[in-house]
């Protein structure tokens, strides 16, 4: 590749080097700019002479100020940037952007599983809920037995998963903030990919009792003959020895597997998709290739009547003015501001600030600070109006949200964000990465999008889409956006992603801001 840099806006005074392996000092670009320093791939180069204190612009946003004089062609990295203060939550533009409504996108469908509550699953999974971390080892043993001995008898059931976590006891169960992990676990149990089946493994003495976790009315009645709350309690006197616990769990699982096995995929409109978008292991190309392509796809999904959630409070906080301006109503804008203010206070309580977000890997990939990272993160949300806001652990349907672009407030931690998006009702997940991560979820298919062609080549059996072709000049943002949209319909219809092929997933990670006792 000839020497190449990429700017995001004509008013930017820095660009990123696109070439694999970076470029040495003395490299001359077609524009005539000559590198003063060697610059790694994805890192910034000054396009003009910068004096100490001058604003450094990328995305036409001030991502920092030069810590010293930097001649044109200099490598501009995090140690040479002074990060600006966070945008005030006062005086923000409120619902000021009113884009013309695009035409609806009609005629797109996928093959999904209709549920009694009106939702649609992209997978047909038996999920076994747990009330407390103490039962995780027993359930893990039982699930492995169920998969080996029972699941082959039920060919229309995709998987069996244990909803294991680290909550349920040793916590201040009624403290302020305790409602977040409790409603998160409750709402994950109601995820569309689980078919409305309710099976719980409890220890018996825990604070989070089954009736508290899943009170009557949590689920619609699927089968009048089935118990509304099917609980296996390990401390029941009937259990004599470890294997009797396993036998009870396996026996109870049979009825749920039989009902799930009677379900069949049927043609449903693309509007039944509930997509969560997220990025992790981000680099400077995230906001150039993968995230803009996801943003274009987000707009397609919204036009098709689907629901799309974007999240990660600390990774959008520095662009809150962009988000409140795009709010469909003043109420939506104020709800986003409230979520930012809550998280500001949460970080302040822990005596940290938003600068703690950016990782060594982010910086190695060219992201100097959270301001720059936020600008690249926000573009996943596309251009549609933001029509709803969820607090952590809330479910879309409980808030009356059935379509559109939604801000679901979550921490930026990959698995906490994924866990909370599952609780919101996500049935399909899109995850972009530049540094690379083997992230996956057992509860919903995850489509992985690489920001760079080098990563897509090296991790060829982990990445589903190569958005690096955009930087290589081999595809446009629109090309990759449409490719992703069509792939979503295929995956929602049953096509496996690489993460599913390798069965990559971690335990659920509940966000618990309440005290631990």
């Amino acid at each position: 590749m000839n020497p190449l840099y990429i700017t995001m806006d004509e008013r930017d005074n820095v660009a990123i080097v696109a070439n694999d392996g970076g470029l040495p000092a003395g490299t001359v670009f077609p524009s005539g700019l000559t590198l003063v320093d060697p610059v790694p791939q994805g890192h910034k180069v000054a396009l003009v002479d910068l004096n100490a204190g001058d604003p450094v612009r990328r995305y036409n946003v001030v991502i920092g100020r030069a810590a010293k004089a930097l001649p044109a062609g200099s490598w501009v990295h995090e140690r040479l940037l002074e990060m600006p203060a966070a945008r005030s939550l006062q005086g923000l533009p409120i619902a000021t952007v009113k884009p013309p409504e695009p035409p609806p996108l009609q005629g797109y469908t996928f093959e999904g599983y209709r549920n009694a509550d009106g939702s649609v699953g992209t997978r047909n999974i038996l999920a076994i809920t747990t009330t407390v971390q103490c039962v995780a080892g027993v359930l893990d043993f039982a699930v492995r037995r169920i998969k080996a001995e029972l699941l082959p008898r039920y060919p229309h059931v995709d998987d069996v998963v244990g909803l294991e976590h680290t909550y349920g006891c040793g916590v201040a169960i009624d403290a302020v903030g305790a409602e977040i992990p409790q409603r998160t676990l409750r709402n994950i149990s109601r995820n569309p990919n689980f078919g409305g089946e309710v099976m719980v493994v409890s220890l018996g003495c825990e604070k989070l009792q089954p009736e508290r976790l899943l009170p009557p009315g949590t689920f619609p009645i699927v089968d009048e003959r089935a118990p509304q709350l099917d609980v296996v309690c390990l401390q029941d006197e009937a259990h004599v020895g470890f294997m009797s616990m396993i036998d009870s769990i396996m026996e109870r699982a049979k009825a749920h597997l039989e009902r799930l096995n009677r379900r069949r995929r049927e043609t449903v409109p693309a509007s039944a998709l509930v997509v969560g978008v997220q990025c992790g292991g981000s680099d400077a190309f995230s906001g150039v290739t993968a995230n803009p392509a996801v943003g274009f796809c987000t707009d397609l999904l919204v036009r098709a009547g689907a629901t799309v959630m974007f999240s990660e409070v600390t990774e959008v906080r520095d662009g809150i003015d962009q988000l409140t301006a795009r709010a469909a109503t003043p109420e939506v804008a104020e709800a986003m501001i409230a979520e930012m203010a809550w998280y500001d206070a949460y970080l302040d309580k822990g005596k940290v600030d938003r600068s703690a977000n950016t990782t060594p890997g982010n910086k190695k990939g060219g992201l100097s600070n959270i301001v720059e990272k936020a600008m690249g993160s926000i573009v996943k949300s596309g251009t549609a109006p933001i029509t709803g806001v969820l607090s952590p652990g809330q479910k879309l349907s409980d808030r009356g949200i059935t379509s559109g672009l939604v801000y679901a407030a979550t921490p930026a931690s990959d698995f906490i964000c994924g866990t909370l998006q599952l609780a919101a009702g996500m049935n399909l997940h899109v995850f972009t990465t530049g540094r690379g991560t083997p992230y996956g979820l057992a509860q919903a298919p995850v489509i992985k999008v690489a920001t760079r062609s080098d990563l897509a080549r090296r991790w060829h059996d982990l990445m589903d889409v190569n958005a690096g072709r955009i930087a290589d000049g081999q595809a446009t943002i629109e090309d990759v956006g449409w490719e992703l949209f069509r792939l979503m319909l295929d995956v929602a219809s049953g096509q496996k992603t690489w993460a599913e092929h390798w069965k990559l997933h971690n335990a659920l990670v509940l966000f618990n801001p309440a005290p631990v006792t």
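DSSP finds 14 helices and 21 strands in the chain. The longest helix spans residues 242-261.
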